[in-house]
Amino acid sequence: MLRRLLPSAVALPYVLLVFATLCWAGNFILARAMHADIAPITLAFGRWLVALLVLLPIAWRRIREQLPQLRRVWKRLFWLAAYGIATSNTLIYIGLHHTNATNAVLFNALIPLMVMLLSWAVWRKPLAGREWLGMTGSLFGVLLIICHGQLGRLLALDFNSGDALVVAGLACWSVYTVLLRGVRESMDRFAVLAVTIALGLVMLLPFLVWELSHVGLPAASGANLASVLYLGIFPSVIALLAYMRAVNVLGPTRAAGFLHLIPAFGAVGAGVLLGEQLAFYHVAGLAIIFTGLYYAQGQVAAKVPATVLPQQR
Questions:
Q1: What element of type H or E holds 10?
Q2: How far is the CA of 64 from the CAs of 58, 69, 183, 191, 312, in angstroms?
Q3: Of 274 and 60, more confident
Q4: Given CB 3.0 to 4.6 Å as the disulfide criterion, which of 41, 140, 147, 164 pairs with 153?
Q5: Where is the chain membrane-spanning (predicted)?
Q6: Residue 121 CA to chain centroid, in angstroms?
Q7: Is pLDDT of 8 > 90?
Q8: Which residues lie below 8 Å from residue 65, measured CB to CB, with a gap of 6+?
Q9: Alpha carbon distances (Å) from 226 to 48, 56, 99, 219
Q10: CB under 8 Å to 203, separation ≥6 — which residues?
Q11: What is the DSSP string of 150-170?
């Protein structure tokens, strides 16, 4: 009975991507909500520190077992840490201190296009016409939700200095996504993630010291603690592991297309959590997004390699 409820090997990477984007939608909403209470670098450092503490009991033995392999790819791990851990979310958190959540969500929709171009530049992956058309359709669905069904509202959006930081952070995430394709299937996901987080924390440490010397520690409140714990467990560990596995199965371009769901889930989440009304354009936008993603994916092989299944240890 339980096996029937679990997704098939073919569907599993798509289920993982939907779950990951749901967690990351919460990341944007929560980071904006807490921007007045926790300084951006402190929030980023606290998030990744919690993530490392959660991972270490599982990953420590795996790191020791795969230490020779990890040493051979230390340069790739360094760049994964630099782009995906130290830089991406830190820039986004700083940007959210100077721009509104609507603008940040809008820019988030640019990631699939960034990844498509980077995949072509780095891996020389040809871009099929259906991928361009599907991505464009999915982007239209995102804009429909953001603009409340009135695309003319795009012209009224006010962009400021924080927008450039958000775009830079999202560009770093796009580079991280493309670099993930080069991580061998034989390498343990927990070990890779733990090592990259540890490296990213070392990179962030000097900036954290500078920030604390200027603004001090955040207040020791239950809301602050709960926010850091959520960011450290769900978007940082569970969602990232799911995303890493999906990228290795589907490739960076297909996986990145699902990032269009982040602003869509953000709009729905605002309706559920903040009491905002769920309008027709939300439903229509979601339908367009899913249609565009489905079309861009093309024909999926009926058989998925066994390496995508969870490793038993």
A1: none
A2: 11, 10, 18, 9, 17
A3: 60
A4: 147
A5: 35-56, 77-96, 102-123, 132-152, 164-183, 190-210, 222-243, 255-273, 279-296
A6: 21
A7: no
A8: 188, 191
A9: 14, 20, 24, 12
A10: 81, 82, 85, 86
A11: -GGGGGG----HHHHHHHHHH
**How far apart (Å, rounded) are the C-alpha atoms in residues 41 and 53?**
18
Residue 62, pLDDT above cutoff 80: yes
- Write out the two tokens for 249: 């199965």
Instruction: For 210-233, write each residue's pLDDT tens digit.
Output: 999 999 888 888 889 999 999 999
Mean pLDDT of 237-266: 80
Q: Which of 270, 262, 250, 254 is nearest to 286 (CA)?
A: 262
For 130-141, write each residue's pLDDT tens digit.
777 777 777 777
Rg (CA), the chain: 19
For residue 11, the tally of other CB atoms under 10 A from its CB is 12
pTM of the full structure: 0.75
Of 254, 240, 253, 238, nearest to 294 by C-alpha is: 254
Judge whether residue 168 has pLDDT over 80: yes
Helices (H), the chain: 2-5, 12-33, 40-65, 67-72, 74-80, 88-95, 101-108, 111-123, 129-146, 161-180, 189-215, 222-233, 239-250, 252-257, 261-273, 280-297
- Measured CA to CA, the distance from residue 251 to residue 183 in angstroms comes to 12
CB 263 within 8 A of CB 146: yes
The answer to whether residues 183 and 119 touch, using CB atoms and an 8 Å cutoff, is: no
